[in-house]
Every structure is written in structure tokens, then in C-alpha cells.
Write a structure and sequence with these properties.
VC0802-like, binds S-adenosylmethionine, 4-stranded antiparallel beta sheet, 30% strand, 7-stranded mixed beta sheet, Rossmann fold
């Protein structure tokens, strides 16, 4: 019986279960809020990747289950012994609430048997340890099979006085994990821009931004010469936009996912061919999986979807990255 640990948002557990239901002969059990263990036959990571999950953030295989922390270095040494010279990162997640990730990382990184090839945080191979009430789950795998390159799929950013909104972290997370081919300076259309967190992130990456929202923008964004604020609804803007074209279209509008896709499709003529789109699709409390899949299918009728997932910074929503053909 093979096993893997998977991570999801605590309140997205039932949607993750709905997705995993597509796999036959597997059993999922909760490990802690927002994490579970999957048991079944064969390459479970391949199977999970194959269903292209929206609500599973990260996975790692379990080759060894241990009860005592001090047993970790020896077991980790054995798992990685034949990979001398490979670039290996170490991930630790503590699901017990005691936040011992740092101690676990130190224990592994300072072990003489492992010191020769550990680096981090992102690498081709990953040694993962997840601590739960039921013990330590240790696994070694290729990073590209794990759905995200970070431990638990967790992207932590600090709030600073410059942070305009927590929403900004969603777009930062997209830029941190998905390579978008954007020129050094580019034109971006930001639908649902207020108070300006995404606009700010775009400015930092070299954009000139048309920010569309009936609400006020933060003065630090509003006063920036590279920002044009259209103070109205996106639907109105699209009627008046004229011939301006954009390299990137982002949409964080708070509205029903189907309506958001509809408005996005209406905006596509303004996006250059090959241009990228980043959209958050807001989901209802019930029926999220069905709604998300249908919304993506509608978006996919006119765009090439590159990525769709509930990111670490998404709440009741998923993020989709697509390209205009
Ligand atoms: C989650 S907030 C956007 C946060 C923003 N991305 C940031 O980083 O600061 C959602 C925004 O969508 C805007 N919105 C809702 N419906 C809209 C519409 N039809 N047209 C334009 N903006 C809309 C709201 O006014 C609100 O400011």
C-alpha cells in the first residue's frame, strides 16, 4: 500500500474529496485540519497529478512513518542515499500547532549524513517531513510531481506598511510560482482593482496599469503617473475602451464566477495575442467544485488555461492563469 500526504484549505476538504473521488481504489483520511493521507496502489502522485486538482495545494509521498523525531536523520539518510550530487531541498510542515518546522529543518540539515547535498527552498528533489499527532511522515520525491514547489504549498508574505491589501498576496503568489513571459515594461488591465493591491504588484513588475473599479484606489496608487483609474464598472469600461490593447489582463472582481468569466471573455479583444490572463473565480459555499469546473470550461473555450488552483492566499475562490491564443 502506497501513501501520500496532501494539503488543502481546511474549508475546501469536501471539494478535495470530490476531486479525489475520481480515483478508484484509494482511501483518504484526515491527518489534521487542511491535510490528509491518501492510501492506495501504484504511483499516487501520478494519479493525483492526472486529475488536475483545483483544491489540493501540495502533495508528498510517504515512504517512512516514524514515531520519534530523533529517528528522522537516519531514515532521511537512507531515503536519499542513492541521490548523491542531486539538488535536494528539505520541507517541513508541522500540523500539530506546535510550529516545530524550524527545529525539524535544523535536525535534518545539521545531520552529517545529509549535509552534503541539502539546499533550499526549491530544488529538483525534495525530502519532506510532515509532523502530525500520529507521528512523522517522511517522503522523498521529484519536486515537479508535488503540485507546488513549497512545503505544504504555503507561501508566506509579511504585511508591511507598503502592503495595500492582503489581496496583493494572491497576485504575488501567482508571479512567484508561474513563469509569465512579460516584457520589461508592459500594459496591464486590472479589473476590480480597488484598493490597488494588485495594481501595486503590477507596477513593481514594470507595468503601466489601467485600473478599473467604481471604488477608490489607495492614494499611493491613484497618484502614480503610470496608473489610469477608470472609476466605473468593467462592463462600462469595455464599452468605452477604444483601441487600447494590453499585454496582461487581471481580474479580481468580486462577482459570481460565471459573470466574471463572461466579462473576461468580453475583454479578450483588448488583450494582445499571446497575452496572459490572471483571474480569481469567486465560489459559492456549496457546489464550489462544479461551479469552478464549469467556469473554467467556459473560459477555456476562448483561452488556453495554463494553471488553475486554489492558492495559499485564496479563500472561497480559485486562481486561473490563461493565455490568449
Ligand atoms: C477583492 S476586491 C479587489 C482587490 C484588489 N485586487 C486589490 O488587490 O486591492 C474586489 C473589487 O471588485 C470590484 N468590483 C466588483 N464588481 C465590479 C465590476 N462590475 N466592475 C469593476 N469592479 C468591480 C469591487 O468594487 C472591489 O473593489
Amino acid at each position: 500500500m502506497d501513501q501520500l500526504v496532501f494539503f488543502t484549505r481546511e474549508d475546501a476538504w469536501s471539494f478535495a474529496m470530490g476531486e479525489l473521488g475520481a480515483l478508484s481504489g484509494i482511501r483518504a483520511a484526515p491527518l489534521a485540519p487542511g491535510a490528509g493521507i491518501l492510501s492506495g496502489q501504484g504511483d499516487l502522485a501520478l494519479q493525483v497529478n492526472g486529475i488536475r486538482p483545483l483544491f489540493i495545494r501540495h502533495i508528498h509521498p510517504v515512504q517512512t512513518h516514524l514515531e520519534k523525531e530523533e529517528e528522522l536523520p537516519k531514515a532521511a539518510g537512507e531515503l536519499t542515499a542513492s541521490f548523491e550530487g542531486a539538488r535536494i531541498a528539505v520541507h517541513a510542515v508541522d500540523l500539530t500547532g506546535e510550529r516545530r518546522e524550524g527545529a525539524l529543518l535544523r535536525l535534518l540539515l545539521e545531520s552529517p549524513a545529509l549535509a552534503r547535498f541539502l539546499c533550499g527552498p526549491e530544488a529538483d528533489f525534495v525530502l519532506s517531513v510532515t509532523r502530525a499527532q500520529s507521528g512523522f511522515y517522511l517522503g522523498f520525491s521529484e519536486s515537479r510531481t508535488m503540485l507546488s514547489p513549497r512545503a505544504g504549498g504555503i507561501y508566506r508574505y509579511a504585511m508591511t506598511p507598503e502592503t495595500i491589501s492582503r489581496a496583493a498576496f494572491k497576485l504575488t503568489e501567482v508571479f512567484d510560482r508561474i513563469p509569465l513571459a512579460l516584457p520589461d515594461s508592459f500594459e496591464a488591465l486590472d479589473l476590480g482593482a480597488a484598493p490597488g493591491g494588485w495594481t501595486r504588484v503590477l507596477l513593481e513588475r514594470g507595468a503601466r496599469v489601467t485600473a478599473v473599479d467604481p471604488a477608490e484606489l489607495d492614494p499611493r496608487v491613484e497618484s502614480d503617473g503610470r496608473v489610469l483609474h477608470y472609476r466605473g464598472l468593467s462592463q462600462e469600461y469595455l464599452k468605452e475602451a477604444g483601441g487600447k490593447t494590453f499585454d496582461l489582463l487581471v481580474n479580481d472582481m468580486r462577482m459570481d464566477a460565471f459573470e466574471s468569466v463572461r466579462v473576461t471573455r468580453e475583454a479578450l479583444p483588448l488583450l494582445k495575442s499571446g497575452g496572459a490572463l490572471v483571474i480569481t473565480l469567486k465560489l459559492p459555499e456549496k457546489g464550489s467544485l462544479k461551479k469552478a469546473r464549469e467556469a473554467l470550461s467556459r473560459l477555456g473555450e476562448e483561452t488556453r488555461i495554463l494553471f488553475a488552483r486554489q492558492l495559499y492566499h485564496n479563500r472561497s475562490e480559485i486562481t486561473c492563469v490563461a493565455e490568449k491564443p
